[in-house]
Specification:
By secondary structure, the protein is an alpha/beta fold. It has 2 domains: 120 residues, Periplasmic binding protein-like II (D-Maltodextrin-Binding Protein, domain 2), CATH 3.40.190; 94 residues, Periplasmic binding protein-like II (D-Maltodextrin-Binding Protein, domain 2). Helices cover 44% and strands 22% of the residues. The strands form 2 sheets. It has a 6-stranded mixed sheet. Strand 1, helix 2 and strand 2 form a beta-alpha-beta unit. The longest helix has 33 residues.
């Protein structure tokens, strides 16, 4: 009898281990099946911050993050033409408005995420100098496309407000996105550049020589939204963007937060 009971107990333990293993395998398979590929179209000025967010988001969610960077105007046009994006992060409100007006946003998901400031930069090492220095120089001034790229739009607006645009317009070197303008200055191909503070902080080959007064241009706001038809992975990424882990990375890169971070 004792031998029979021992055999039953051993069989039961074996069965329990098998059931637990099967449950773990099923849970792992279910998580794998729910994981998604999330394609994010983001303004070029977000590259350093979002690159740093990629690994922690993927570890937390199990999703695969695909980051596509360009000027907000180019990304907005691509989304409007049906490009397969799941989330859009713009460097200004107007381009998000354009995408929303075409019915391309997932209703109720748009939120203002970050804010930024504009600065004047020069190849390092450089001394602090007033913005009026731009009118005295002879070299190129790099900035984004002034009719399309948000950083370029803000830069021209600021220069017009300060009464400097007409004096420097002929020397402006316009680029497809703000990171390209940053690169021109970093390589010494432009004497000055007008870029976001976050870009300047990410590039050791340039120095900030002057801040641009915030009142000289429209507020620099980064809205984010899911694209219509996107899956649950896009929702998980949007939630992650407003969490504490993301907030710490954004603040470390010099961005301002427009909402209190969640958990």
């Amino acid at each position: 009898m004792t031998s029979w009971r021992s055999s039953c107990a051993a069989l039961w333990q074996t069965l329990r281990r098998a059931l637990l293993a099967a449950a773990c395998l099923w849970l792992g398979s279910a998580a794998s099946l729910s994981a998604e590929r999330v394609t994010v179209f983001a303004a070029a000025s977000l590259k350093t911050a979002l690159d740093a967010l990629e690994a922690p988001f993927e570890a937390q969610s199990g999703d695969e993050l695909v980051l596509v960077y360009a000027g907000s105007s180019a990304l907005a046009r691509q989304i409007s033409q049906g490009a397969p994006a799941d989330v859009f992060l713009s460097a200004n409100v107007a381009w998000m408005d354009a995408v929303e007006a075409q019915g391309r946003l997932h209703a109720g998901t748009r939120r203002d995420l970050l804010e930024n400031t504009l600065v004047l930069i020069a190849p390092a090492p450089a001394q602090a100098a007033p913005l009026e220095t731009l009118a005295e120089g002879a070299g190129y001034i790099a900035m984004g496309l002034v009719e399309a790229v948000p950083a370029g739009i803000y830069a021209r607006e600021a220069l017009e407000h300060l009464g400097l645009w007409e004096q420097v317009a002929a020397r402006v070197a316009q680029t497809d996105n703000v990171r390209a303008a940053l690169a021109l200055v970093a390589r010494g191909e432009a004497q000055f550049g007008l870029v976001y503070r976050t870009d300047a902080l990410a590039e050791p080959r340039v120095d900030i020589v002057s801040p641009v007064p915030p009142e000289a241009h429209e507020p620099i706001i980064y809205p984010a939204a899911r694209i219509a038809g996107s899956g649950d992975g896009a929702g998980r990424f949007m939630d992650f963007l407003t969490g504490r882990a993301a907030a710490e990375i954004f603040e470390a890169q010099g961005f301002g937060l427009l909402a209190e971070p969640g958990k």
